[in-house]
Structure of Thioredoxin:
Amino acid sequence: MKKNIKCFFAGLSLVAVIISGCSGSSPTPVADVAKEQVEAVPGFELAAIRSGEELLNTSDIDGPILYSFWASWCNYCQKEIPYIDSLYSEYSDEISFISVNVTPDDSVDGARGFIEQYDLQMPAYFDLDGIASSSLGVLAVPTVVLVDRQGRIVEKLIGPSAMQSEEEFVGKLESLIQIGKN
């Protein structure tokens, strides 16, 4: 009986965290945390969503990275990801865009359907084992994580932040490009 109660509350807590990510909360910048962060985010591998694409090892990426975490069932993700994808063609020469489906909270078919439905062009990957989410401290979707050339988290935006101020979001991308540039 006690085990069932513990499982119930653990499940309830997980649902609360997931729902809070899809709430209308304001973005949560972590620029202050990034200033203190000395070590680079460790590399990890992601499996490609589209067939024919290869496994991605993030340690092989040179330059700044935009990680966009999403789930196919998340309403805010359905609005934000197409906007971020629209910036991919403009900024992909200077920033590596990595779209990451939080697979443990989604289904493989749901993720593939999402990519097809929105005709996403940016590279899309599964976080099959949750390593990417864990490494970057992602607890809710949508979440955008900006990582500089040295592999340090510059900013983490939780919730539908890119859509709240498109001009401000583009400014963050422009700043990311300049960080550490010689």
